[in-house]
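S1.2 Input.
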Amino acid sequence: MQLNAIEKLMMNNPVRSAVQRWLEAPRMLELGGPLPGGRVLEVGCGRGVGVELLLERLGAERVDAFDLDPDMVRRAKQRLARHGDRVRLWTGDVTAIDAPDGTYDAVFDFAIIHHVPKWRDALTEVHRVLRPGGRFYAEEVLAKFILAPLWSLVLEHPMYDRFDASAFAAALREVGFEVKGQSELWGRFAWFAAQKP
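S1.3 Output.
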């Protein structure tokens, strides 16, 4: 599901970029380790801040990325043009990733899967496109935040079948991942590093 106008504003500002750069990316790096020379996919790339971090801070050699919103893909293309053929962008859906099996060394989710009504299908697709030994790094918003009365009034999220950290970790295991690291903040946000055996 695409972001509503309020959430789009929240995701496209310097504060959000700073949170990705100084909190989310370091936490993912701590949980799952760097990506020296890897081919990486970012699901739900927004305006491309995460792609920059993957190239500049986490060591990815090449990043493919997509977003459900064509406007976000357009913004990302403008932002990332300087990276040339190290970046490939398209409009796409995380429940039907346009890539062959075993394509990527790592997949990154900067708080996108909680927007997906059939979020388990997204995890299955992420698992499918990773090569054996590939890693999945996820930062996610949990049910306690999504279902809070204030946020449920102003933000648009699927309201059924929402997950807490333990349910997300269990779903990762169900699709075949080994959970290598996990951390949580206030029961509302969580980070995961998982590996495809």
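S1.4 Remarks. The radius of gyration is 15 Å.
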